[in-house]
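Researcher: I'm comparing several assemblies side by side, and this is the next one on my list. It has 702 residues spread over two chains. Same procedure as the others: predict the full complex and return the structure.
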Amino acid sequence: MPQRKRDDRKAQVKRIRVDALARVEGEGALYVRVKGDRVEDVRLRIYEPPRFFEAFLRGRSFVEAPDITARICGICPVAYQMSAATAMEDACGVRVEGPLRLLRRLLYCGEWIESHALHVFLLHAPDFLGYESAIEMAHDHPEWVQKGLQLKKVGNELLTLLGGREIHPINPRVGGFYRAPTRQELLEMKERLEWAREAAYETVRWVAQFEFPDFEQDYEFVALRHPDEYAILDGRIVSNKGLDIAISEYDEHFEEEQVPHSNALHSRIKGRGAYFVGPLARFNLNFDKLSPLAQQAAREVGFLPECRNPFQSIVARAVEILYACDEALLLIEPYEEPEEPFIAIESRAATGYGCTEAPRGILYHRYTLDADGTIRDAKIVPPTSQNQARIEQDLREFVARHLELPEEELQWKCEQAVRNYDPCISCATHFLCLEIERV
Amino acid sequence: MKTKKPKLAVWKFASCDGCQLSLLDCEDELLALAGEVEIAYFLEASRAVVQGPYDVSLVEGSITTPHDAELIQKIRRQSRYLITIGACATAGGIQALRNFQNVQEFLQIVYARPEYIETLETSTPIAEHVPVDFELRGCPINKHQLLEVLTAFLHKRRPNVPTYSVCVECKRRGTVCVMVAHGTPCLGPLTQAGCGAICPAYNRGCYACFGPKETPNPASLMGWWKAKLSVPERDVTRALRTFNAYAPEFREEGERHAPTEAG
């Protein structure tokens, strides 16, 4: 059973376990070992079974990668499709610009709205208000749960319009789309998006007044940065500690390490270690690129960079919902239907790199192709693998400071600390139970 | 009269989470559903867990580890009705591509220390392990079909889930046949309806994410692809080997086109 508690005083061993973390996407567990007032070991164990995407992509055609890699994650399939498509285009020496790039950004806004609303309202807010689930929370806060569901629905409507359906969209392809929407179809979304923008603004105010544990760490935040926009589809990979590299230089600066307790690989910055990706990283590094309205909402609630409290990720996520609605409305305005829905692309023997901002952080793809477009080698680094080492360090610090808490409360707070990162375990398993052992 | 609400459980094996997400994607119906059933086990949505037995278990994902092969037996024993949802649970999913190759090679490609990883040689559908009361197809499933199946089981009637092909949905939708009119290779004639024939409506051929329809004729269609549309043999095999690669009808046809690779 998922939550299990054991208190074995005879053997001087105290232990709290959660064998299966709830309200995360996928299957994982957590183990913490405490000796006196020292936290000896923290392990985020991902037992989600491996699915070997990088292996079976070998021998497939380059045009198949967006549809195949979408199946890594049902919550952020667009992120996989976009990283895969841009990597293939990079390999073939093509850049997708103009209205097709605009449509990709608009589609991505849909995914940010849907995924962030799911996490803010259904997965994370219940922690702050003391409910086991959003369904339970709906008894006391029906208006917020309804609002959250409707926000999520607007994101999904955008995905359905541009992608054909909300989960595993069928319309994106290498080079663009199978069918470009008409201007009229996009304009029909306007009213819904204006409602969503209003609801998102209220959401920023709502989550900002939650009670946040007093907890700050000296993080290295990593995100894409683009000169003209809040980066989603491309840019340079930057950090608050001086990293500033092209996407193609990723492998020179990051490494993946396998640990015995997890089916997900841990990413580290070479020579420096754990780092932090996702909405809080993006907010801290790219605040100046947010729309005036999103900046205004953040300022109004006193939420400003550089925020180092991971529990406030929920505020960053809410600001990004607001931004995505605002940006979607901005993108719709100038849209004119392109002559062709995609650029025809010829394959060549080359290596291509793609990195886009999935709802949970940067998602890196690298493919090496044969001249006929057959994939020879594939590498995929999902955001949750990148956050995994950082989550373990947060827990180590958090537990050390809160050993006085009753077991039940400490356990719940640890779960909440993990959910700060909105871990997507299905993604990271190529990625969580909570177990605290007090010796 | 019994007034207790039926208990619903949602389970996950190897999968992408997308099919159980379909339940949370029922934005307009979720709270009403939560009023009709007791959501007793659904980790993606709640940390509260109610002990079994359960009236209805929804199972997502395929069996790929020794641990999961045991767990599904336990779930079957605790479930009055067991309904599998999605291509992973009904056909083994995209991860069943390992069934055509050597899983040890796959391990070495992805992991530096393969010995840390516990996995089975194959990815198999739930029905290969336990009796299943209903299989709902799709990668991902259609949420309206999911609600129909749940409603049917809660009211003890047969679900209205058609087993005809995507072609019927295209005709009903008024989509011009992409294969006849544009020469676009399409798996619609082999594929079970349920998605609403989205792909042809977006000017692309169906890629069979709902798996084989009842009594398909893959040999005929693939022959037609090769003869009339000049699709190379390699691309025929690739088309059959995606999210439902291990469904018997696709598996057998795929082996006809790639006999040497078959494992």
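Model: For your comparison table: Chain B has a mean pLDDT of 93.
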